[in-house]
Design brief:
The structure holds 2 protein chains of 2 kinds.
Chain A lengths: L3 E10 L2 E11 L4 E5 L6 H8 L7 E6 L2 E2 L4 H6 L1 E4 L11 H11 L7 H12 L14 H13 L5 E5 L7 H14 L4 E5 L3 H7 L2 E6 L2 E7 H7 L8 H9 L2
Parallel strand pairs in A: 3-8, 3-9, 6-7, 7-8
Antiparallel strand pairs in A: 1-2, 1-4, 4-5, 9-10
Helix pairs in contact in A: 3-4, 4-5
Chain B lengths: L1 H16 L1 H35 L14 H25 L1 H9 L2 H6 L4 H21 L3 H9 L10 H26 L5 H16 L1 H5 L6 H8 L1 H9 L5 H24 L4
Helix pairs in contact in B: 1-6, 2-3, 2-6, 3-6, 3-8, 3-9, 6-8, 6-13, 8-9, 8-12, 8-13
The chains are: A alpha/beta, B mainly alpha.
């Protein structure tokens, strides 16, 4: 059974259609790159998967649970990094991570160790006692990722995790995400295409709310009538030009 | 319930790490000490006059000034009540509005937490900060009982003082519940504060409107008015009917808040 299963998912805001008839699935341990131009519906889809927004039609299941019918079961299995990292500027990094850990219902005893663990993974160990509003954008983003990793949920949904990072930090986060493959199922949205080629096995490209390509990355180029050597970027531009 | 407590703890820690709570504390203490000194002066004047003329010669509405409890503390609670009406919206405004503006609302809504736990947690945090604000005013009766003298018994009648103080806490809890609901409706803190204030003030003044209308509307309006319900409690009269009234306002506001948070899932 696939870890994430989306069928005929549609989201309408009054007469505007944000996402139309999406169907895809992600197997356990897989990393799916979620691509598309700005405003294509990437974030909307992620918000539906995490139970923040209800779908207008269609279903989404995570770990076998319907996101609308059994939201708590789904939320227990997901670590989510929204577009804007959801941080409280007044709190210290440690205080914030502890708070999120208790929101996720992690047992109080291992909490300190767990906070240290995710801080180590995301490289924020040395800023744990600083107040979040004084951190640079890159550190804020990393604290956002750390928050999603707390309690190592089986599914990670990361909305543009490398946004605001410098090239070195970007490489670190990429390595981190790659290291999560196998243990976690990951959906990763980005518009930095080389990132997808480097970290993901499969890619899903959406444009104006509809799927335009969904396959293993190495097959994408040949499938869409281009030379084997064509880069993902060329495929992307061709598919989203319409 | 553990998550609700975690949310309450987070709310309190944010109140106390930002200048907000301290600004409100200062306003509360500054304003109430101003009125306290004023009341003391008035009390002294009446007492001096009575010493010259004797209580029999004094106008009957001056009889409250015969003791410190009715002459100072009960009247002070009356002014603290009004100050609370003005400061509570500034404490409650950020509860939900700030989460929405900061995009942290998404964090709460995608964590495995039920909406009711979010609402209860937020409300407990709000109760904590309003109790701390009102807690500062207990210093005035303490001062009076330390330095005041009475011809018979203790300087203050503590049962009356504390019952009135209990009334104040109930009133603070009511303001926070209404403010919590309004804060859940908007992402602008200023708007939340303004709306809360413009709901609480007319509600408070309903008893005034009641004077100018016919029965049976008059009884209904004065029953619904915060002012009329609070009067007895502040004077130290325990009134179950008022407690039921305020408990219903609080529960109703919390239910509305819960609906509003829950509605996010259906938007």
């Amino acid at each position: 059974m696939p870890m994430i299963e989306v069928q005929h998912l549609t989201k309408r805001y009054r007469d505007r259609v944000a996402v139309e008839d999406l169907t895809f699935s992600v197997e356990e341990g897989e990393i799916l790159g979620f691509l598309g131009p700005n405003g294509a519906g990437k974030s909307t889809t992620m918000k539906i998967l995490t139970g923040f927004l209800p779908p207008s039609a269609g279903t989404a299941r995570v770990g076998g649970f319907d996101v609308f019918e059994q939201p708590l079961e789904v939320k227990r299995r997901i670590g989510y990094l929204p577009e804007t990292p959801p941080l409280y500027p007044e709190m210290t990094v440690r205080g914030y991570l502890k708070f999120v850990a208790s929101l996720k219902g992690l047992p109080g005893r291992g909490l300190k160790v767990e906070v240290e663990r995710v801080a180590g993974l995301t490289g924020v160990s040395h800023v744990l006692d600083r107040v979040i509003q004084n951190l640079s954008k890159g550190y804020k983003q990393r604290v956002g990722i750390a928050q999603a990793l707390l309690g190592s949920p089986p599914v990670l949904i990361l909305d543009e995790p490398t946004e605001g990072l410098d090239p070195a930090q970007r490489a670190e986060v990429r390595a981190l995400i790659k290291g999560l493959a196998g243990k976690h199922t990951v959906i990763l949205s980005t518009h930095i295409l080389p990132e997808v080629t480097m970290t993901c096995e499969k890619a899903l490209i959406i444009n104006q709310g509809k799927i335009v390509a969904y396959d293993e990355i190495r097959k994408l180029a040949s499938l869409h009538g281009q030379a084997e050597s064509a880069s993902l970027e060329e495929v992307f531009i061709k598919l989203t030009a319409a | 319930m553990r998550t609700a407590l975690a949310i309450a703890r987070k709310e309190l820690s944010i109140y106390f790490t930002t200048p907000w709570a301290y600004a409100v504390f200062t306003a509360m203490v500054a304003l109430s000490s101003f009125f306290f000194v004023d009341l003391l002066q008035k009390f002294k004047q009446v007492q001096d006059m009575a010493r010259l003329m004797g209580w029999e010669q004094m106008p009957p509405d001056f009889s409250v000034y015969r003791n410190l409890t009715d002459g100072v503390v009960v009247q002070l609670w009356g002014t603290v009540l009004i100050i609370t009406l003005f400061v509570a919206p500034f404490l409650s405004m950020r509860l939900f509005a700030e989460e929405k503006r900061n995009k942290t609302f998404e964090l709460l809504m995608t964590a495995p937490v039920r909406p009711i736990e979010i609402v209860v947690g937020k409300y407990l945090g709000g109760l904590g900060v309003i109790s701390a604000t009102l807690g500062l005013t207990i210093v005035f009766p303490l001062l009076l009982s330390a330095f005041g003298k009475a011809e018979s018994g203790t300087a203050l009648e503590w049962s009356t003082v504390l019952l009135g103080y209990g009334g104040l806490l109930v009133w603070g809890a009511t303001c926070m519940a209404v403010g919590l609901f309004i804060s859940a409706l908007t992402e602008s803190q200023m708007l939340a504060a303004f709306l809360t204030f413009s709901v609480l003030l007319p509600w408070m003044l309903l008893s005034g409107v009641a004077q100018s209308v016919e029965e049976p509307l008059r009884s209904v309006l004065s029953y619904l008015s915060f002012d009329a319900q609070l009067q007895n409690m502040l004077k130290g009269v325990m009134d179950v009917q008022s407690l039921v009234f305020f408990a219903s306002v609080i529960v109703f506001s919390l239910l509305l808040t819960h609906r509003t948070v829950e509605a996010q899932r259906w938007a």
